[in-house]
Amino acid sequence: MPGAEKLTDADYVALADFRHALREFQAFSEGRVAEYGLTPQQHQVLLAIRGATSAVVSVGYIAERLILKPHSASGLIIRLEALEFVVRKPSPIDGRQAVVELTSKALTLLERLSAIHREEIVRLRPLLKTLLDTFA
Length: 136
What we know:
This protein has 136 residues and is mostly helical.
């Protein structure tokens, strides 16, 4: 980009270290959710639904949050329905559209997984803060 500062060797080290820290967290997360029989994407769907700021969560919203095509998100929802983690209901706003809701089984599991993930983020916080501060 014209006018951008040239990257230094330290910049490349910081970028590599930051990507490594993110990948370590991702590997941690993948391992934990697998212990509970979920794929990382299934976990992300549950988290996206629970973390939605709107009470009405559509397949389109899930696709957007996971950066997926709607048909891929729909496939994830079908598998989560089979595992009894979500239910689809007609939208109260537009009956032609379905909304996705978590079951009590999903809420219980997600609470456990989220506590585990929060502990890991707290553990990584000093490292991530140091890495982010190198870009200030």
